[in-house]
Amino acid sequence: MTVQPIRLFGDPVLRTPADPVVDFDAELRKLVADLIETMRDEGGAGLAAPQLGVGLRVFAFDVDDVVGHIVNPVLHFPDDEEQDGPEGCLSIPGLYFDTKRRQNVVAKGFTEHGDPIQLVGTGLMARCVQHETDHLDGVLFVDRLDPQARKAAMKEIRQAEWYDAGAPPVVKASPHSFGSLFGKGR
Asked: Per UniProt, which keywords does this protein have (predicted)?
């Protein structure tokens, strides 16, 4: 397990849809361990593989003392109930904006060993699962804001200390052997 650097807003891997996991091997288990270790080190509720530069459909979560991961998630919504509240992202550090999400979610996928799992989430867990699954689709939470809120969010991002509009995004090599340009798996 190793804490990895988190890709920040502007890195192309965050806008690239991730590939399904097809190999449930030691490399995937190392990725899951790195996701959990990095998420905990940063104090996040969730972390998706693209945020570490790996274009695979897997994320980790730590919500209300429930720590886990899901590979190749598929979401189902049992009802139309919504929630609206502050949301942040480790790839957009220090900024939080009210974001509408579904209140309840059922995520079906697999463990790092390829065993089927189902995660039923409500409230914060539902928000986390939707947020991290968005990362796997190349969607950031600011994309879900209404136009006025998105404009305000982009203004704050451009003013953030970590954001450098004059520099091209830094694309780092993944520490995982299946990572390549833009974190796409082979």
From this structure: Hydrolase, Iron, Metal-binding, Protein biosynthesis
pTM over 0.85: yes
Token pair of 70 as six digits: 């899901």
Is 131 annotated in a binding site? The answer is yes
- How far is Cα 13 from Cα 19, in angstroms, rounded to an integer? 12
Asked whether residue 89 is marked as a ligand-binding residue, the answer is: yes
Q: Is 42 a catalytic residue?
A: no
Of the listed 37, 42, 132, 161, which one is catalytic?
132
What separation in angstroms does the CA of 90 have from each of 94, 115, 120? 8, 28, 23
Buried b (16+ CB within 10 A) or exposed e, 117-135: eebebeebbbbbbbbbbbb
pLDDT score recorded for residue 186: 30
Residue 148: which residues within 8 A CB-CB, separation 6 or more? none
Q: What is the per-residue pLDDT across 109-135, written as a single tens digit (0 to 9) for each?
A: 999 999 999 999 999 999 999 999 999
176 in a labelled binding site: no
Interval 4-39: pLDDT, tens: 999 999 999 999 999 999 999 999 999 999 999 999
